[in-house]
């Protein structure tokens, strides 16, 4: 599949269909294709031989996607930066990317010179009458986008995803949870900021399916009084978010099939989907299909899928993340780099057609994380995920947490996520995040932050009781020193549980 050609054909044959909506603004397929082609012409004329990426700064406006498409039509990768990114990181990213053009579609407070504002972008498009020729479009191994990871599990790096990576990903994602034809013309919900690659799952799967992308901005997401009516108004059939965001929505009783009667598919990625969340969602949306998918930015959003049925959610805990998409293979490596025996756990290595070429301008980091590998008689790109997992007899991948969330406490080697999985076995608790208390580089104790039950009268008593009961599941050295009840776990800008913030509270 070639997404840019597909957009062209939609613009020609279904030009009046709405491609993107944000509040009262929208672009039809004809507008999106035409205006992005014209803006691409401007970029090419202005930059000529400078093929450096285009930085697009902003939030959930419809012009964001228009600028992404203009960049790739001009033959340049784009690098999306959301307004939630702190100024210093915006500045660092821009100095690393050395962009050919910067579009700042929202007001920018970072120290950045020469950015083109939204008003100027509109004027440029108005003045540039001709769309760019297709021969300029990024294709094959050309980089389509560069996403700087959030750093939730390390330091931010610019992951380069090529046109081929994206096209291979889309061939699979249009069929996630439903047949591809069942997604045609449907509404897709966008929760994730564009600087988080989860958004690629809704933006491009939607555009590839001639759907309407419904953008939910940050302020709406944080205000139930606006969020619930927006969800209702969206008419969404495909839901794409982190599980944490769905959990947050479930705090409102009206979040159900009555509110969103057209909702057919939940697509989750980015963090663990707990059995509790899946089961609660099934109660609220009995007819919807729930898909768990897994993958890092480095292998284009997601590379596995599994439909979470009631039976699965009731019998297998934690939930598997599923089987690889076509064109993806897994290897499980032991600490010494050799292949783990069948069924045993180790580092998950992703091999295949959606694995990135590497990090932008960071040959050193690229060499550490990526390598080439033969599979089925062909050379493939492979990526060391830093995630731990194993493959079961049916070929399902089971994710067991980050290798770097392994700590040493009083000489014991402990998997933080192992403790979390056991805490949620306690009836009252639906989510648990355990953070180490570190002094002088050494782990001194552990604190667990939990949600689920109503606020206990005495935090001390609650902690004591939970710890007592945890003894049924965990050895004493793995039981956190404190168990703290919270109404909600804090989320980072990408909508994942914010471990760093909790670390500060421990
Ligand atoms: N379905 C899933 N279940 C559990 N964990 C998941 C799932 N999908 C993704 N993850 C976790 O999210 C990671 C990928 O996150 P992402 O590429 O968004 O980077 P990030 O959160 O910005 O972190 P960093 O910046 O440190 O790379 C995976 O490597 C895995 O640890």
From TrEMBL:
It comes from the Bacteria. Residues 402-429 form a coiled coil. It is an enzyme of class 6 (ligase). InterPro entries: AA_adenyl_dom (IPR010071), AMP-bd_C (IPR025110), AMP-bd_C_sf (IPR045851), AMP-binding_CS (IPR020845), AMP-dep_synth/lig_dom (IPR000873), ANL_N_sf (IPR042099), DltA (IPR010072), DltA-like (IPR044507). Pathway: Cell wall biogenesis; lipoteichoic acid biosynthesis. It is found in: Cytoplasm. D-alanine binds at residues 197, 301, 496. SUPFAM superfamilies: Acetyl-CoA synthetase-like. Keywords: ATP-binding, Coiled coil, Cytoplasm, Ligase, Nucleotide-binding. Residues 419-496 form the AMP-binding enzyme C-terminal domain. It catalyses: holo-[D-alanyl-carrier protein] + D-alanine + ATP = D-alanyl-[D-alanyl-carrier protein] + AMP + diphosphate. Residues 10-360 form the AMP-dependent synthetase/ligase domain. CDD domains: DltA (cd05945). Catalyzes the first step in the D-alanylation of lipoteichoic acid (LTA), the activation of D-alanine and its transfer onto the D-alanyl carrier protein (Dcp) DltC. In an ATP-dependent two-step reaction, forms a high energy D-alanyl-AMP intermediate, followed by transfer of the D-alanyl residue as a thiol ester to the phosphopantheinyl prosthetic group of the Dcp. D-alanylation of LTA plays an important role in modulating the properties of the cell wall in Gram-positive bacteria, influencing the net charge of the cell wall. Belongs to the ATP-dependent AMP-binding enzyme family. DltA subfamily. This is D-alanine--D-alanyl carrier protein ligase. It comes from Anaerovorax odorimutans. The gene is dltA.
């Amino acid at each position: 599949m070639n997404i840019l050609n597909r957009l062209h054909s939609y613009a020609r044959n279904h030009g009046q269909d709405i491609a993107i909506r944000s509040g009262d603004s929208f672009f039809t397929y004809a507008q999106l294709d035409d205006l992005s082609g014209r803006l691409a012409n401007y970029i090419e004329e202005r930059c000529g031989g400078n093929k450096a990426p285009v930085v697009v700064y902003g939030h959930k406006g419809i012009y964001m996607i228009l600028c992404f498409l203009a960049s790739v039509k001009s033959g340049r990768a784009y690098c999306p930066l959301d307004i939630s990114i702190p100024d210093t990181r915006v500045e660092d990213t821009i100095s690393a990317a050395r962009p050919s053009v910067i579009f700042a579609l929202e007001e920018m407070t970072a120290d950045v010179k020469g950015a083109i504002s939204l008003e100027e972008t509109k004027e440029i498009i108005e003045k540039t009458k001709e769309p760019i020729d297709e021969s300029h479009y990024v294709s094959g191994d050309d980089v389509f986008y560069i996403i700087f990871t959030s750093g939730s599990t390390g330091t931010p790096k610019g992951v380069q995803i090529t046109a081929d990576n994206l096209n291979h990903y889309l061939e699979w994602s249009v069929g996630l949870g439903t047949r591809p034809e069942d997604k045609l013309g449907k509404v897709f919900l966008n929760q994730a900021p564009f600087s988080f690659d989860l958004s690629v799952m809704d933006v491009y799967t939607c555009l590839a399916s001639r759907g309407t992308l419904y953008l939910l901005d940050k302020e709406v997401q944080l205000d139930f009084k606006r969020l619930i009516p927006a969800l209702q108004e969206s008419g969404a059939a495909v839901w794409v978010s982190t599980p944490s965001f769905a959990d947050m929505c479930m705090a409102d009783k009206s979040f159900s099939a009555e509110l969103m009667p057209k909702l057919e598919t939940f697509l989750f990625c980015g963090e663990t989907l707990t059995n509790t969340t899946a089961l609660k969602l099934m109660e609220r949306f009995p007819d919807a299909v729930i898909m768990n998918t897994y993958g890092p930015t480095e292998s284009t959003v997601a590379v596995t899928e599994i439909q979470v049925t009631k039976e699965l959610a009731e019998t297998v805990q934690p939930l598997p993340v599923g089987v690889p998409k076509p064109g993806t293979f897994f290897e499980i490596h032991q600490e010494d780099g050799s292949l783990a025996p069948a069924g045993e756990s180790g580092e998950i290595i992703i091999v295949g057609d959606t694995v990135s070429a590497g990090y932008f301008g960071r040959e050193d980091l690229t060499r550490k994380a990526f390598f080439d590998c033969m599979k089925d008689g062909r050379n493939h790109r492979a990526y060391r995920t830093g995630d731990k997992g194993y493959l079961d007899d049916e070929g399902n991948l089971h994710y067991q947490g980050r290798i770097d969330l392994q700590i040493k406490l009083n000489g014991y080697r402990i998997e933080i996520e192992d403790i979390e999985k056991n805490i949620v076995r306690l009836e009252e608790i639906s989510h648990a995040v355990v953070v180490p208390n570190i002094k002088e580089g050494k782990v001194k104790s552990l604190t667990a932050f939990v949600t689920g039950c109503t606020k206990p009268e005495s935090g001390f008593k609650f902690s004591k009781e939970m710890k007592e009961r945890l003894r049924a599941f965990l050895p004493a050295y793995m039981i956190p020193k404190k168990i703290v009840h919270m109404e909600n776990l804090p989320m980072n800008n990408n909508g994942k549980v914010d471990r760093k913030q909790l670390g500060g509270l421990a």
